[in-house]
Design a protein that fits this description.
Distance between the termini: 34 Å
CATH topology: Translation Initiation Factor IF3
CATH architecture: 2-Layer Sandwich
Largest sheet: 5 strands, mixed
Number of domains: 1
CATH class: Alpha Beta
Oligomer: single chain
CATH superfamily: TusA-like domain
Number of helices: 2
Radius of gyration: 13 Å
Structural class: alpha/beta
Shape: globular
Order of helices and strands: EEHEHEE
């Protein structure tokens, strides 16, 4: 199942930041996005390009957890690109485990 294609961030009201995730997968992709999101103003739309086949699953779950808005796949051609709007008050995640919030660190790695 693929995400519906959306048009987001095409006006001066919605600045767009392009981020190339390349071949990064899962954890490294979320760390890249989280680190960029922390430096961007609220309301910025990030167009994240990635060849990670699990991105359509990981990105919406991570956005729900952190408070960012997931818009789905954009209509850009080429490598799959997904749109995320940066939240004003995002929930922080652990440095090495971006799927765990700082309030609920989960089990420690072995």
């Amino acid at each position: 199942m693929t995400d519906p294609v959306v048009e987001v961030g095409r006006s001066a009201v919605d600045p767009v930041h392009h981020l190339d995730g390349g071949d990064l997968e899962c954890i490294r992709l979320l760390i890249l996005l989280r680190n960029h999101a922390a430096r961007l103003p609220a309301g910025t739309v990030v167009h994240l390009t990635t060849r990670d086949p699990v991105a359509p699953i990981d990105l919406p779950a991570w956005c729900r957890m952190t408070g960012h808005t997931y818009f789905g796949r954009t209509s850009d051609t080429g490598a799959p690109t997904y749109a995320v709007r940066i939240a004003a008050s995002a929930v922080a995640t652990l440095d090495d485990r971006p799927w765990h919030t700082t309030h609920d660190p989960g089990p420690s790695p072995a």
